[in-house]
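Same chain as my last thread, 261 residues:
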Amino acid sequence: MLGAIIGDIVGSIYEFYPIKTKEFTFFHEKCFFTDDTVLTLAIAQALMDGGKETDYIKNLKTFTINYDRRRYGGRFIRWALNDDQEAYNSYGNGSAMRVSPVAWWFNTLKEVESAAKDSALVTHSHPEGIKGAQATAACIYLARTGASKEEIKNYIEKSYAYDLSRSLAAIRPDYSYDITCQGSVPEAIIAFLESADYEDTIRNAISLGGDADTLAAIAGSIAEGFYGIPNEFKEMALSYLDEDLCEVYNEFKIRLEMKQQ
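reply #2:
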């Protein structure tokens, strides 16, 4: 899930100031973590707590309250800050940007897709919101278990009907800020499919000039599974997080290693 966190941090300064180039400072001094990072770690904690609906709800709300100024969507923040636990039929890309821990926690594609749905449903009960989370998690799982880019592309197109045949060059000129799953998840996957390595994936995603931090978080979460992450990027990203968030990340990493033994 660090792949998503890095994408979020690097893309943070371009969310509302979009760029159409791959030439930019990777870890800029003004970068910071946003809601994408907070909610990704909330999902990780929910999985460690048991992965039930109540665990997702509790942790998404608690993490949001603890980090309440991190650019949350309007409908999500209203859900998080009141006692209502009903999902609000969202198809925003928040379900996809926070799902990466799920794709590492489970050992089969079927389990991953089922858990991705569960993690989305507590807020993103619209079919497109669920689809975005499942497609992203499936990409990550396939990437980390040795599938080729062509195999990933074919599976997602067949299973989720996303058009992944477009090129970044064709998308980039007219693409703009889009927070829907259907308008950003396919583009983030394409950013990964056209990449040469992890860093190039993040640069591809941000260069589209859209919802930069979330595009980069989604694309980066897939790229982590496929390429891994350079150690210097890991160290730099964790330096942006506070002690509590680092503790969640480290505990999840330890628990994951124990599960895989």
